[in-house]
Amino acid sequence: MGELPPQVQNLAAQLQQVQQQLQLILTQKAQLESLIKEAKDALEELEKSDSDHAFKAVGNVLVKLKKDEVEKDLKEKIETYEVRKNMLERQENKLRERLADLQAKLKSAINVQAG
């Protein structure tokens, strides 16, 4: 078949770049989902506790705080993580659309080249 035309090479390079961006987004989203689960689990355990105080890790030190302060902090973390996750999901959807578009264009360009 020989050398691919620059247009096809360009489409293939764009496709590869979008695939890499999508993989990065999916990795970040998975990390956030893990952080959300961890924070929700901690909040659930904290809500089961009868104590008025809880310990919070600050660097390498555990600090004793009022239970409601720790609960508030966990709820804020969850909210922040979920906002970031939603942002990543929007980016993921846009990248998936772009990926499908590039795949169609590349397939069409290859068919034109072959035919």
TrEMBL record:
Residues 8-112 form a coiled coil. It is found in: Cytoplasm. The keyword Chaperone applies. One of its GO terms (molecular function) is unfolded protein binding. The keyword Cytoplasm applies. Its main location: cytoplasm. CDD domains: Prefoldin_beta_GimC. SUPFAM superfamilies: Prefoldin. Heterohexamer of two alpha and four beta subunits. NCBIfam families: gimC_beta. Belongs to the prefoldin subunit beta family. This is Prefoldin subunit beta. The gene is pfdB.
